[in-house]
Amino acid sequence: MAHKELLARHRAVMPKWLALYYDEPIEIASASGRRVTDREGTTYLDFFAGILTNAIGYDVAEISDAIRAQLDTGVLHSSTLYLIKSQVELAEKIAELSGIPDAKVFFTNSGTEANETALMLATQARRSEQVLALRNSYHGRAFATVAITGNRGWSASALSPIKVSWVHGGYRYRSPFKAMDDKDYIKACVDDLREIIETTTSGDVACMIAEPIQGVGGFTSPPDGLFRAFKDVLDEYGILFISDEVQTGWGRTGEHFWGIQAHDVVPDAMTFAKGLGNGLAIGGVVARGDLMDAINANSISTFGGNPVSTAGALATVNYLLDHDLQANAAKLGSRLLGGLRELADKHPVIGDVRGKGLMVGVEFVGPEGEPNAGAAATVLAESKARGLLVGKGGLYGNVIRLAPPMTLTEDELEEALGILAQAVEKA
């Protein structure tokens, strides 16, 4: 079926707000390694990995074999009303990797559900509906997670089950504190946090939730140490801290397994999803045992932590640990950042190159430094035309997001840099 015909059918039955990339969207029909092939036979090097979800790449035997083995049992689902061995084994591994004392794990189907669960835990434990969130954040598309999403392009409603106060810090490039050095930037953001707590809340705030690197917001991040400084303030008020690791988890940032570790912080809870399942639908929360047990009503997750997704996720975690993909992300991420900064030196249309590991953002600007969404759209399209798939985001839609599978090779990295250089020439 040609893409044009499928697009017409898609538009007839799917909501108009369901975003699609490109003027002529594609269907990915097959894949292997870091390359995908569309329905019309064109092959691309994938540098967005299903929005960071295909973290190990495509057609990985160890993961596929684990899924097939579970399928061969005939048990695709049982619900959490029954014991699931792979769920318990995966929870044990995540609890250990988290570094959170006495950790417990609850599995969901997505990052949205994970963040909804974390908010429910915090508001229940603190008996408060007040939440602190960062400007330019994105935490999901459900009722409460839309409320804590500080990006108007992804926030469909002002209605909310919680009361949110917005804190500076996550998006440094266009921050009013941009010109400051790291130390003064952190101090300014901490002063802002204190003032927000003192002026916009009644003090008994449930939690702060933050992405160590803002994903949809354009792979933006504060200087290392900001969240350590925030946590010290939060502790004074008894406010819980939740790290949203949906995009930063599993070693993608290279230097650490979890994004928040760059700030020398052990959060009260972390949420996760995306890369854990390498394409399977799975998310969850890992939290201190007392916080996880704060809910005093019955609850289940019908599909969360099902036998198929946990078998695949367990194989995924084992693969990335056995092959030290965190080290690969650190090594190739350094080269990716360096190559893009060399490109930025030649092209004023690139205002900022940022990120860690294999999670890199390129912000495009106009002559006066204003957001240049047109340039980002051009690079998105021109990269595709040359066989490279990249992502796009940012508050103003002017950031190209690069997050290839963590099994990326050096040759593939150099290929992508060459394509990006050609695409930027057209911006």
TrEMBL record:
Q: Which Pfam families does this entry report, sorted A to Z?
A: Aminotran_3
Name the Gene3D superfamilies for this protein: Aspartate Aminotransferase, domain 1, Type I PLP-dependent aspartate aminotransferase-like (Major domain)
| InterPro entries linked | Aminotrans_3, PyrdxlP-dep_Trfase, PyrdxlP-dep_Trfase_major, PyrdxlP-dep_Trfase_small
Which Gene Ontology molecular-function terms are recorded?
A: alanine-glyoxylate transaminase activity; pyridoxal phosphate binding
Q: What is its EC number?
A: 2.6.1.44
Task: Name what cofactor the protein needs.
Answer: pyridoxal 5'-phosphate
Where exactly are the transmembrane stretches of this chain? Answer: none
Keyword Transmembrane helix set for record: no
CDD domains with a match to the protein in the record: OAT_like
| Keywords linked to the UniProt accession | Aminotransferase, Pyridoxal phosphate, Transferase
Q: Describe its assembly.
A: Homotetramer.
The UniProt entry, under PANTHER family, shows: ALANINE--GLYOXYLATE AMINOTRANSFERASE 2, MITOCHONDRIAL (PTHR45688:SF3), PTHR45688
Give the protein family: Belongs to the class-III pyridoxal-phosphate-dependent aminotransferase family.
Record protein name field: alanine--glyoxylate transaminase
